Amino acid sequence: MTANRPIYSIGAVAHMLDIPAATLRAWEERYGVVVPERGEGTHRLYTRDQVEQLRFVKGRIEGGLSAADAHRVLQDDLSAGRPAAGAAREDGDETRTLVLIAERDPYAADLADYLLRTEGYDVCIALDARRAQALFAERSPQVVIIDLLISGGAGFRLCREFSERRPAHLLAVSALQSADEALGAGASAFLGKPLEPLQLVSVVRDLLGTSALARPTRRPAVQC
């Protein structure tokens, strides 16, 4: 996978698309069309294109096709070089969601702060692990962006701690190839550094369910 492309856990994909993780695993095993890479820890590593493909399948099922037929249509489109669906579009109607940035580099933190505030988010910044823990407890952010190398590599510990303490969307970021380890520690998604501004905002929207990749309505979950 390309280092600076966002990577999502199966739990994050299930949340974004409102499809049970067990169904995603069943589709992978039965149809073999959307097959995420596996990290060394056997965690499924989904790309944004694969999330879009699964959204395409869900839409065809909701339109009346069986899961098998929906995957067959997807496979035909992929074989013919046709995209599964249009490019993702952003909704642009954000509420004041709080994002905690746990980042060791103050310049990177300031840039992310600027980008997210421009998109309508509230932001708080922690430049070390201890401050991140305090802000997480005090402010209850909906999204936490965690530099895995903060405070000498404490980002993995923060992922584990935050994922166990309270539901929150955790986006791990690093210049190292650490997607598998990050998802194993409880992160919802991984993004390589240096961060691309549009990708950072898009992944935050994905995790919150406000991008075109996420479910548009709260319909009953698709079953296999």
Protein model, in words:
This protein is α/β, with parallel strands linked by helices. The chain has two domains: 7-79, Multidrug-efflux Transporter Regulator, Chain: A, Domain 2 (Orthogonal Bundle), CATH 1.10.1660; 98-208, Response regulator (Rossmann fold, 3-Layer(aba) Sandwich). It has helices at residues 10-17, 21-31, 48-62, 67-79, 106-118, 129-139, 150-153, 155-165, 179-184, 197-208, and strands at 7-8, 37-38, 44-47, 98-102, 122-126, 143-147, 169-174, 189-192. The chain has an eight-stranded mixed β-sheet, sandwiched between helices. Helix 3 packs across helix 4 (67-79). 38% of the residues are buried. The model is unreliable at 86-95 (pLDDT under 50).
Give the strand tally.
8
Number of domain units: 2
Task: Give the CA-CA distance, first to last residue.
Answer: 28 Å
Helix content: 40-55%
User: Which descriptor suits the 3D outline?
Assistant: elongated
CATH architecture of the largest domain: 3-Layer(aba) Sandwich
The low-confidence parts are: 86-95
Please state the structural category.
alpha/beta
Encode the helix/strand succession as letters: EHHEEHHEHEHEHHEHEH
Rg, Å, rounded: 17 Å
- Overall pLDDT metric: 87
Give the percentage of residues in beta strands.
5-15%
Output the CATH class name of the largest domain.
Alpha Beta
Strands of the widest sheet, in order across it, are 2-3-1-8-7-6-4-5
Helical segment count: 10
CATH homologous superfamily of the largest domain?
Answer: Response regulator
Largest sheet: 8 strands, mixed
The third-level CATH topology of the largest domain is: Rossmann fold
